[in-house]
Amino acid sequence: MTFHPTRLLPLALLAISAFVRPAADPDWVRQVGAKTVPLGKATFAAARYGAVGDGKTLNTQALQKAIDAAAQKGGVVTLAPGQYLTGALFLKKGVELHLDKGVTLLGSQDLKDYPDRMTRVAGIEMVWPAALLNILDQDNVAITGEGTVDGQGKPFWDSYWALRKEYEAKGLRWIVDYDAKRPRLLVMANASNVTVKGVTLQRAGFWTVHVLYSKNVTVDGITVRNNVGGHGPSTDGIDIDSSSYVLVQNADIDCNDDNFCLKAGRDADGLRVNRPAEYIVIQNCVAGAGGGLFTCGSETSGGIRHVIARNLKAKGTKVGINFKSALTRGGTVEDIKVDNIEMEDVGAAIQFTTNWNPAYSYSTLPAGYPEATLPAHWKAMLTKVDPAQGLPHFRNVTISNVRVQRAKTGILAAGQANSLLENITLDNLTMTAATAGNLSYAKDWTIKNVTIMAQDDKPLAVQHSSKVML
């Protein structure tokens, strides 16, 4: 492995780098994605049920009537071009919601239009507002078309920042994200055979697409824009949360947090649920602004495994390939293959951290809050985790064929003395970065065909590690 300082790799060389042909896909890859789609051809025009596309009339009841009618026999809900203001909608089995070009669903900016439901948010099961579009306990559902779903999230962003300022002054940073209730844009939970294809989703109040406790899901060709009219906090692009056999492809995401993210529960509550995110393929996607091009965590309690992320591009994300957890989270992240990745102008190109964002990750109740009167989700967050059970583990990860231009840091990888980063392979990586970075508490790493050209003339620092083969 060579680390050449200061000299930048010519762009032409980056463009023509030869890549090792990946091994054949494992058998499970053929099983990802929706296995069925709605076949009903009858159309249910929303206008027949009273929907008005003037951008002002609240259409929740009219649109829900169209969806319910289509669910009776199966069919397609259609809308004429226009802007349709609506609160939470609930899609049903056998229904395709088709949004043609020129059709925009506008999310209500009144939280009362999103009824509370039991769900999981950021790794904790709790009562939370419904999403704008909900697919709950349903099979065989689709959302298609070239139209737009606009969450109009700015009022929810503003309320979050106001509450965060108040809570941080009280030592409550760890709970503000759970108390600042904001509607997600699209949630599927306990669902199967769901297809989301082609639509643009923007200005989500909170996460954009949340795949929760679901299986056989396809998300194909969507565009996410959460930096329109501001920078929405925690507006993740796609979160795959304790779900299986999921295919994400051809997506273009610009948001203000993790772009493509895998999650599996947080701390004591996530360990109680104990459901993994597994059998997932993410491919042929691009990311602009955001917290991480491809992220595993920080909610890792149920485990994340059997994942392929390939043919991805990032320009301007804070982190490129990101594995993150915390010392109260537990869970094992393993059998992850990341291949053929291009990055420009990122923060850290590759990061592993077992102690991510302590101010957010660890819950401590300040004086003056009687425990008997605390909300249920506060109690869940404050439930102590046995230190051994709380240790997260990262192992059996292969990252190959990566090209990086102008990163701040090449590699940041930090395990723990009692939770080493184990059996990680970095193969055929070329980076230009301000600094090469550091590696600590690692074991059985194979680093081959890796070049980091660091401007500060310092090599990758390796500490407290064994069997790191350079």
CATH superfamily: Single-stranded right-handed beta-helix, Pectin lyase-like
Number of strand elements: 33
CATH level 3 topology: Pectate Lyase C-like
Low-confidence residue ranges: 1-21
Helix content: 10-25%
**What is the number of helical segments per DSSP (H or I, 4+ residues)?**
8
Overall CATH architecture: 3 Solenoid
Could you give the distance between the termini?
6 Å
* Radius of gyration using CA atoms only: 22 Å
Task: Provide the β-strand percentage band.
Answer: over 45%
Structural class: mainly beta
**pLDDT average, as an integer?**
94
Q: Report the biggest beta sheet as strand number plus sense, adding barrel if it closes.
A: 31 strands, parallel
Short description:
The chain has 470 residues and is mostly beta strands. It contains 8 helices and 33 strands. It is globular and about 70 Å long.
Properties at a glance:
470 residues, mainly beta, Pectate Lyase C-like, two-stranded antiparallel sheet, 8 helices, 47% strand, disordered N terminus
Write the layout of secondary structure elements.
Layout lengths: L10 H5 L27 E3 L8 E5 L1 H14 L1 E4 L3 E5 L2 E2 L4 E5 L3 E5 L8 E6 L2 E6 L3 E4 L2 E7 L2 E3 L3 H16 L3 H7 L6 E4 L2 E6 L2 E3 L6 E4 L2 E6 L2 E3 L12 E4 L2 E6 L2 E3 L3 E6 L3 H7 L3 E11 L2 E7 L7 E12 L1 E8 L7 E13 L3 E6 L4 H4 L14 H7 L4 H4 L2 E22 L6 E20 L1 E13 L6 E3 L2 E4 L1
Helix pairs in contact: 3-4
Word description of this protein:
With 470 residues, the chain is mainly β. It is 14% helix and 47% strand. It is built from 8 helices and 33 strands. The chain has a 31-stranded parallel beta sheet that branches. A two-stranded antiparallel ribbon has the order 8-9.
